[in-house]
Please model this.
Amino acid sequence: MRTARQSRAMLRPMLLGSVACTSIAAAFTHPARAQVTDINTGLPTAQAVHPLAASPSVGGVTLDMISVAGSGSGRGLVVDSSGSQVGYLARRLRSSTKTDTPLIDTPQAISVVTEAQIRDQNVQSIGEALRYVPGVAIAQGEGHRDEILIRGQRTTADFFVNGIRDDARYFRDLYNTQRIEVLKGPNAMIFGRGGGGGVVNRVLKEADGVPIREVLVQGGQFGNKRMAVDLGDRVSDSAFFRLNGVFEDTGTYRDFIDIRRYGVNPTMTFLLGPQTTLRLSYEFFSDNRIADRGIPSQFGRPWRYRENTSTLFGAPLISNGSVDAHIGNAQLDHVFESGVVMRSQTRIADYAKYHQNAYPNSPVSADETAFVMRGYGSQTDRTNYFNQTDFTYKFNTGPLAHTVVAGLELGFQEGIDFRRDFIWNSTGTRNLLVNPFAPTTTEGATLRNLASGRNNTYRLGVFSAFAQDQIEIDEHLQFIVGARFDRFDFQSRDRRPDTATGLPAQPNSRIDNLVSPRVGVVVKPLPNLAFYGSYSVSFLPSAGDQFRVLDPTTALSAPERFENAEIGVKYEITPALILTAALFNLDRDNQPIPSSTEAGFSAGPGKTNTRGAEIGIAGYATDWWQISGGYAYTEPRIVADIDDDGDVIRAGNLVGGVPLNTFSLWNKFDIGERFSVGVGYLYQDASFASSDNTVRLPSFSRFDAGVFYAFSESMRAQVNIENLFDRRYVISAHNNNNILPGAPRTVRFQLIARF
Model:
């Protein structure tokens, strides 16, 4: 098998020549006197709003018809150039159905974090951006990757970019992100394997022909320094370009934890004819940081977490981590004379990932004199090749209006998983006893591939075919019916010699042929009110979302299965404000449960049931008040006893890391023509660090704030304060002894300038 490192050498010339963003911005119009504000900056555009034929107004906000030209100033609604986003509200999206569908007509709970909200909250990562999304909990990710729980389902791999899988383990940046979509419940019909609790899809900025010259400068506490640029224009009437870039060199509230990352993302759009568009994109992104796994526990609770908000329990000199990602994308759109619309997107991504970390591996002793520290080094290089091609056709059969989508996905992934344990110089073993009152060690270690380590290679071939029909009976009743066939051909090899024979281990493989159905109904008694119900199923092959090596036993294991039933309601209070609610029941079979003691290992397999309710709100409450947030009740429970290396995770236990109740609400108030303030509130219920329910994480609440001032139509400054009242709390945990304290009061400054 060709290694991922060899693949990179072959791929880079191709990556430089193949790449894509999203779609071309269309005109968006608005009558009335409200100022149209640019979604990228929150600044008034250098364009005035001219009235067209009047359209109905709800709550004083008229959105349906907008025309942009000339110049103007003042405050008002923040819209994007396509009309799909209005401030904090996304009105339409493609990712849920592969068709451009209004949010109210989609039988699924969906939350969208728009670029306006990303800018206003001054967030820089996936985890920060999703804190105000109901039903999502932010996991620790072992200090080196994005990891979240959606509806109680933990994932490191259900991340997508423009609808294509981005499943490597790393921290993503938002410098080139137009919006973040969280689609809840099983999504196999559209996205394929996994995604049982939901998926996160980033929609990237595109070369849309709109001139933009923007610089964003950030700074703040703990040595935060960051600059981003966004440059775009027309090369000709049929060729557009855009360049996004970022550089960050920052410390954090945690001692010794420094981050240095940078990225560049050039994109081009070519209009090859009146019915054909080609989009090319290439991204290079590099992230270097010290991994941080938090603090240990004692007697079933985090040990002195109020005193250890900044204290590193680790070995910073040997806990470095890095990822270099080369990602190319090419997208071809074509409209045939018959009216069939084709979209074909190819994505090639190469990830070189290595990290080392030291972490607490035991509670603090009863006399508070010691805890056990362990560590490891891990190389997880991966190369992904994907092509998605789908065809959309609209037609009528009698009174029924159909929107049919059918297509194929082809994929191939290969990589390595090479993990070696720390052997501490002073002990000659994996265990190092450390004083918890002096928990940052300079102790050295060597790396050794023990039985607890890994040295695996893998490859996965994917063939998928899908079809879906959106059926509109009349203006009051719609159905969606679809199914996806996936064939997974997975092979892995443990490169270590067989312990019994001393000979090279034989590869193990498994082929799964799976069908994932999706059914939904939308009932609309009023144009702005929709009730819906849905049923969906998805699967995850037994190798898991990060490709565990198969042995003769696990090669026979059935895939994980997710089955979700959901009912809900969506109410457009005004065209710029939507209120949603959902009830769901999610069953998961053959699930590996994260070990309560040893990081990177699992207990099980097991079965869980998650029941819950969600309420979300987003948009303009008035023309001067924006709002985003919601409430979630999530109850994920273990259905049957599970063996965890001799311990038992009992039936009825709550799944670790998931608070029963969460509430979030972010508000932005425009005061006068140039001045705005933001106020946010987060509440998270108590939860357990792991599924054995022996270590309890306390509940917490915090306030966030922002102050914004537009000096002119081309410059805006803002100050954001996270944790305004400087509360001490725990934000997340990876297991019982990797518990991360939340950030203290943190101040960030941001200046956005356009030229």
